Amino acid sequence: MAALAPFDINDLKRRMQGAIASLKHDLGGLRTGRAASSMLEPVMVDAYGSAMPLNQVATISVPEPRMLSVQVWDKSMVKAVEKAIVDSNLGLSPATEGTTLRLRVPELNEERRKELVKIAHKYAEAAKVAVRHVRRDGLDIIKKLEKAHEISEDDQKRHDTEVQKATDAVIAEVDQLLAAKEKEIMTV
Q1: What would the DSSP string read from start to end of 138-182?
Q2: What is the pLDDT of residues 7-45, one digit of tens each?
Q3: Other CB atoms closer than 10 Å to residue 65's CB: what's the count?
Q4: CA 132 to CA 140: how far, in whole Å?
Q5: What is the distance between the alpha carbons of residues 122 and 27, in angstroms, rounded to a whole number?
């Protein structure tokens, strides 16, 4: 009979942290009423005969909570950058001053904020489901090891408790991230 996969709580924890990393990325993409340089990451500029990310032709900064500043390095690229931002459907219209573009981030209305909170909840629920799948995998491994008499019943119970504690900790972290994002979205 082939040896069963050993039980490794650290591997399970690492896989659960993957769900957290994915959630952080998803929540980071949700636009709040505040300016963030990451808002302009998807913008591609037609520069020097090819499409380039905006951050490769300009410096993006956040001088005020509701303002983005784009400092274009090459004066001949200003119009192309301006066009790329307008065409990006982000709802931002640049005010150009020489090689600097200022982008005012409009406030979100109440209805849009509530929609964003619902989306954040969906992301959090998906992360919780992923964590529960990892827990189930871990518990299955433990059960098989006990059935094959590779670990004792006491070890099985101890490992089950370990897996549940790890799961509870990660679920609590998901809830914290969601609460923080929800507060950020609803802050006017």
Answers
A1: HHHHHHHHHHTTSS-HHHHHHHHHHHHHHHHHHHHHHHHHHHHHH
A2: 888 999 999 999 999 888 788 767 666 777 777 877 888
A3: 10
A4: 12
A5: 10
Instruction: Take residue 86 and report the two structure tokens written for it.
Output: 């307008």
The pTM assigned to this predicted structure is 0.66
What letter does residue 91 receive in the DSSP assignment?
A: S
Residue 42 makes CB contacts below 8 A (sequence gap 6+) with 88
CATH code assigned to 37-104:
3.30.1360.40
Domain ranges of the chain: 9-29+109-186, 37-104
9-29+109-186 fold: Topoisomerase I; Chain A, domain 4 (1.10.132)
Structure tokens at 134: 């990892």
